[in-house]
């Protein structure tokens, strides 16, 4: 009974860790074998008998009987007189099995056993957590805000597992309070030492894809396929969708009546602007759709170099480029083409980058941000309007216009 009592005292915390008794007994055997090696130098002449149903564990040491005074290895040999204390009819050369009580190992050894057992159970627990979340990589997961740090939010799930949501995996507009539930995808799981580190992301394109699966039944059922997702988290996203059923309008099904279906996704992503686009293998048509809402006049493509020159009416250029250049950049990522836009009907125009000797690069970049990348495009603008739309001073804008105007004067 003393073995059972000790084992139960060792395993009193097993229920908190949800470890079944069979696994616990296997860990116990491993721990005891290590203890036997430390005390006796080896453990291969010991039998450890585990009874998981009773929660009992027996240790038996096997030795050979030798004549008194001839014991050379006390771990493997026992003198005849000592053997006959166990059974009076033992003879030299016979095998003796003697039970080792746990208390015989000594108090310090038992304390060490307990610490080793705790360590092994934590290791087993961490391995299970690692496997569990490794299988969940790329899937949506919900956890509660436990602690807010400068560079990350620490989340806890219902089982008390710690999940990290780093600052750079958060949407810029994200703001969470302690106790609030957060959704994201499990982006990666790593074992650092023996402890699993679980990273959540809300900025990964896969998060948006999984939200489509959750919110749109046709995507979940496989009737609509998401071909590719590109994002500027919290700002803009483009999602290419396709359907093998001609009766289904994939864009209409995803967006819903007046945006009803996509609204919850947009809200989850901090009002991220989502363009849903019909995928096509016709690359010219795909580029045209990807640059929506801009209307394209013509396209000149180089399939080998993966470049496309797009001609648009002047009023469409800013739409094609988008705020901060997001629209054209995402269209390029979605289609795999480097896209350049040109104004229709502008024959004798000069790109702003040709004026780097006279205009500083950061000033040119300010104009490019609002879709103005040629001299005439800037000259067509009102000075006050440019002051409002850029971070440039009025004097700087006037100086730039003077430089550009001189280019066209005879």
From TrEMBL:
Major location (coarse): cytoplasm
GO biological process assignments: DNA-templated transcription termination; transcription antitermination
Matches recorded under SUPFAM superfamilies: Nucleic acid-binding proteins (SSF50249), Prokaryotic type KH domain (KH-domain type II) (SSF54814), Transcription factor NusA, N-terminal domain (SSF69705)
GO molecular function: DNA-binding transcription factor activity; RNA binding
Keywords: Cytoplasm, RNA-binding, Transcription, Transcription antitermination, Transcription regulation, Transcription termination
Domain of life: Bacteria
Domain (K Homology) ranges: 233-306, 307-384
Keyword hit for Transcription: yes
UniProt subcellular location: Cytoplasm
Presence of keyword Transport: no
UniProt cross-references to InterPro entries, sorted A to Z: KH_dom (IPR004087), KH_dom-like_a/b (IPR015946), KH_NusA_2nd (IPR058582), KH_sf_prok-type (IPR009019), NA-bd_OB-fold (IPR012340), NusA_N_sf (IPR036555), TF_NusA (IPR010213), TF_NusA_bacterial (IPR030842)
CDD domains: KH-II_NusA_rpt1, KH-II_NusA_rpt2
GO CC aspect terms: cytosol
Pfam short name (any one): NusA_N
NCBIfam families linked to this entry: NusA
Family indicated by similarity: Belongs to the NusA family.
UniProt subunit comment: Monomer. Binds directly to the core enzyme of the DNA-dependent RNA polymerase and to nascent RNA.
Function: Participates in both transcription termination and antitermination.
The protein's name in its UniProt record: Transcription termination/antitermination protein NusA
Natural source organism: Christiangramia gaetbulicola
């Amino acid at each position: 009974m003393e073995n059972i009592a000790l084992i139960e005292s060792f395993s009193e915390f097993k229920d908190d860790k949800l470890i079944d008794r069979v696994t616990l007994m296997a860990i116990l055997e491993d721990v005891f074998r290590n203890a036997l090696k430390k005390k006796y130098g080896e453990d291969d002449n010991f039998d450890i008998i585990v009874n998981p149903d009773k929660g009992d564990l027996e240790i038996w040491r096997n030795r050979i009987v030798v004549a008194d005074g001839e014991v050379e290895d006390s771990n493997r040999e026992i003198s005849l007189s000592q053997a006959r204390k166990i059974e009076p009819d033992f003879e030299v050369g016979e095998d003796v099995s003697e039970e080792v009580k746990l208390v015989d190992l000594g108090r310090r050894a038992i304390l060490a056993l307990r610490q080793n057992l705790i360590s092994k159970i934590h290791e087993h627990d961490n391995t299970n957590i690692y496997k569990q979340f490794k299988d969940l990589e790329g899937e949506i997961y919900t956890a509660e805000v436990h602690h807010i740090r400068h560079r990350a939010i620490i989340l806890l799930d219902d089982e008390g597992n710690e999940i990290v949501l780093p600052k750079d995996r958060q949407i810029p507009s994200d703001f969470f309070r302690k106790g609030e539930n957060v959704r994201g995808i499990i982006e990666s799981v790593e074992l650092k030492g023996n402890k699993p580190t679980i990273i959540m992301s809300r900025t990964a394109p896969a998060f948006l894809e999984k939200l489509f699966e959750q919110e749109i039944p046709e995507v979940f059922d496989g009737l609509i396929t998401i071909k590719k997702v590109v994002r500027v988290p919290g700002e803009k996203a483009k999602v290419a969708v396709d359907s093998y059923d001609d009766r289904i309008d994939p864009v209409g099904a995803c967006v819903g009546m007046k945006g009803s279906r996509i609204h919850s996704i947009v809200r989850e992503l901090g009002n991220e602007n989502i363009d849903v686009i019909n995928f096509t293998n016709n690359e010219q048509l795909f580029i045209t759709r990807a640059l929506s809402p801009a209307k394209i006049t013509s396209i000149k493509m180089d399939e080998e170099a993966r470049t496309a020159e797009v001609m648009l009416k002047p009023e469409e250029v800013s739409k094609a480029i988008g705020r901060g250049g997001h629209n054209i950049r995402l269209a390029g990522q979605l289609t795999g083409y480097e896209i350049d836009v040109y104004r229709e009907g502008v024959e004798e125009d000069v790109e702003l980058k040709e004026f780097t000797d006279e205009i500083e690069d950061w000033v040119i970049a300010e104009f490019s941000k609002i879709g103005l990348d040629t001299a005439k495009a800037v000259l067509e603008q009102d000075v006050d309007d440019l002051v409002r739309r850029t971070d440039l001073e009025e004097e700087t804008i006037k100086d730039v216009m003077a430089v550009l105007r001189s280019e066209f004067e005879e």
